[in-house]
Amino acid sequence: METSPIKSEKQLLETCKFLLAVLSVLLRTVGYVIRAAWRLLRPVPLKDVNGQIALVTGAGHGIGRQLAIQLSQLGCDVICVDINAESNQQVVDIINKQNSGENDNDGVVIKGKGGSAGMRPGQAFAYSCDVSDRLAVFRLAAEVCSRFGRVDILVNNAGIMPPQPILDTDPADVVNIVNINLLAHFWTIMAFLPKMIENGSGHIVAVSSMAGLSGLANKVPYSATKFGVAGLMDALAEEFKLKSQNIMTTCAHPYFVQTRDDIPEVLDLRLPQLAPSYVAKAIIQAMLRNQESVSIPCQLRFFAHLLRMLPQDARHAWRDVFYTKVSTVNQPISSLTIA
């Protein structure tokens, strides 16, 4: 069956348009790469978050604890959310000592008067919530928005990371990991995003993991949820762009972090573990520069993506060099609190 001349001309025109679009993007990509290289020498200026309301889940310890403290030092009022009310209140008490310039028990120096001229110190407020419970999250959002009016920065940090071989993992534990590490992100976003859209601005930060870019043995459910978080944030950024909404996103992929002593695992790592304060600072810096994605250390994201382009045998060989071995110690997941 012959194609009509008109249809052939339309197809040729569409093909030409496509090729021109590809050429245009290639040229712009060169410019973007040059600009990115220049930004390594001259980073993007940090935006000002003084006076904003930040909500941090899993604020009771580890990365969440440091995120809450450091955001308060930037002048944010911080809503600390954790299922562990005791440890959460300890963080709130640390932050609320800012005005007196005292030191907290972790050796974190809290600067009086916000640490710089013109910056007021941020205050902290404790809320206990199981973020895997959708109804509890929506009740929390209603209470927070009623009291504070809005949340400008939402930091989804809560998570659990139990190490178990896949065949030793109880199905109920898999559900628990998915509920806390992944579905909780959906519930907080759905609860707090409408107010951000109404106010015309906001920033959503998600703490994923390098396990969300390169899977880990003995942490299969954990790795799966962290890949899910990365996909969620990537799709969310595209949706905001499509709708021209002024909502920023940042997805952080930290390497192994020294957060817990009670996790039943033995680590054998090529690279050293990171301090929570270092990771929190890098996440906040990325947020203040409106970076959509960041790995900590920053080189690991490039390495993880490069591995996926290599032949399978080469990929395995490089992973053997930069090994991350997790050995398990039997302990029920129910004994672990939300991170």
Short description:
The chain is built from 9 helices and 9 strands. By secondary structure, the chain is an alpha/beta fold. The termini are far apart.
Shape, principal axes of CA atoms: globular
Oligomer: single chain
Strand order of the largest sheet: 3-2-1-4-5-6-8
Instruction: Please estimate the helix content.
Output: 40-55%
Largest sheet: 7 strands, parallel
What's the gyration radius in Å?
22 Å
Poorly predicted runs of 5 or more residues? 104-117, 331-339
Q: Between the first and last Cα atoms, what is the distance in angstroms?
A: 64 Å
Overall mean pLDDT: 85
Structural class: alpha/beta
Number of helices: 9
Number of strands: 9
Order of helices and strands: HEHEHEHEHEHEEHEHHE
Beta-strand level of the residues, as a percent range? 5-15%
Walk me through the structure:
Helix content is 47%, strand content 14%. Helix 5 (171-199) packs parallel to helix 6 (220-242). Strand 2 (77-82), helix 3 and strand 3 (124-128) form a beta-alpha-beta unit. It has a seven-stranded parallel β-sheet, with helices on both faces. A two-stranded antiparallel sheet has the order 7-9. The protein is built from nine helices and nine strands. It has 339 residues and is of the alpha/beta class.
